[in-house]
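To whoever is on call:

I kicked off a structure prediction for a single chain this morning and the downstream step that reads the tokens threw a length-mismatch warning. I double-checked the sequence; it's 243 residues and nothing unusual in it as far as I can see. Pasting both halves so you can look.
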Amino acid sequence: MSTTPTPVTLVGATGLTGSASLRSLLLSSHPFNLTVLTRRPLSESITPSSSNPSTTLATKIHEDLFSVPKDAGLKIAEKGGVYISALGTTRAKAGGTAEQEKIDLVLNRDLAKKAKDDGADTMILVSTGGANHTSRFFYMRIKGQLEEDVKAMGFKNVIILRPGALLGERTESRPGEWFVQTPFRLLRKVGLSFNSATQAEDVGACIAELAANVPEEKVLTLWDDKITYYAKKYRESNPSSSA
């Protein structure tokens, strides 16, 4: 295992998959130089694990993330590093589809482009199952368009995660999501699993595994079963992460 920390930039760290990714990165036995780009401070309890003193964590707070791509003097990624985006919102929270598109597509695209220009080699994007830039459904269309835009940026490696229904506790309330998550949770309790639902913790573990061991494929798209596969690999290498 390399003793040289891998530089990683994470955006969206306060959301469901982003916070899970941050936890897994901090608990990894692989050393990371983590930079979190966020609009609000992280909890004071979020710190690197004492079992891996080589990992560092820096938080860069920008109340207006839209200004970040326009700041030529600001670097958000390191040369040869990994850029991870778990940034996203809902139509209700954004205030309409136009505002949601500005965040989920435009801001995500512009931040990724800046990370590439700063020298990042690898992009890991949390997308969604069913993403397709030609879809007649708004959300699937903008997620699919973001995938196409990222793949065209020239990263050495692009890894796209397409989880289905995400299971986990969000910091903000999304009442409608309760009706989606509850049936999957009940069925999983009796031992049934589905390719259309994934634990957010598995997404986070998968991302930490791939950031530490970037696959050779130029473009790699992962659905629920492969996300779970890489999450298992991460836990096998980091048994204390499940303690």
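Update from on-call: the warning came from a stale cache, not from the record. Cleared it. Sanity check on the structure: The chain has seven helices and nine strands.
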